[in-house]
Amino acid sequence: MGYPETAEGFMVESQKNWQQFKKQEFKLKPFEDRDIDIAIDACGVCGSDVHSITGGWGEVPLPLCVGHEVIGRAIKVGKDVTTIKVGDRVGVGAQIGADLTCDNCKADQENYCPNSIDTYGAPYPDGTIAQGGYSSHMRAHEYFTFKIPDNIETSIAAPMLCAGLTTYSPLVRLGAGPGKKVAIVGM
Ligand SMILES: [Zn+2]
Ligand SMILES: [Zn+2]
């Protein structure tokens, strides 16, 4: 098959043999009107990837392709997408879906949405399992797809999509700024 029905990724088949990545094809979710298809250029490595494939956070659907600091080019956009054009360099972080209608979503707290979908290892409503960025392509909702400014190199931008964001967001929301003392704990 191949794209647009499937993508290829480096997948782990068992948490016991988590060091063994095998290049495999996987199914992409059905394309919807606010989806963007991304041809992936690069993906940062996050500690969550290791926890997921080693079983540190319990079982995961297998085979699994991890990676949620994804940078690539938009190669197809759904008819209702307004924020991204074909050819844009874009990024996707650790979350790829939410209902966007619940109270948490409406309060810009979509990471607490009861219908949140993680970028990898999570089922879409049709049963397709989301797969991560150590792969050829990703199909992502525009709400979770960000245009990357030209002046930020891909290798710098990628880690901002998870590690960077999880640090930056609380600093901004809690009003950190000049003169404030802050502490950041890595877990
Ligand atoms: Zn991460
Ligand atoms: Zn929601």
Automatic annotation (TrEMBL):
Entry-linked InterPro entries: ADH-like_N (IPR013154), ADH_Zn_CS (IPR002328), CAD-like (IPR047109), GroES-like_sf (IPR011032)
SUPFAM superfamilies, A to Z: GroES-like
UniProt keyword annotations, A-Z: Metal-binding, Oxidoreductase, Zinc
Alcohol dehydrogenase-like N-terminal domain residues: 33-150
Oxidoreductase found in the keyword field: yes
Pfam families registered for this protein in UniProt: ADH_N
Keyword Zinc: yes
The protein's name in its UniProt record: Alcohol dehydrogenase-like N-terminal domain-containing protein
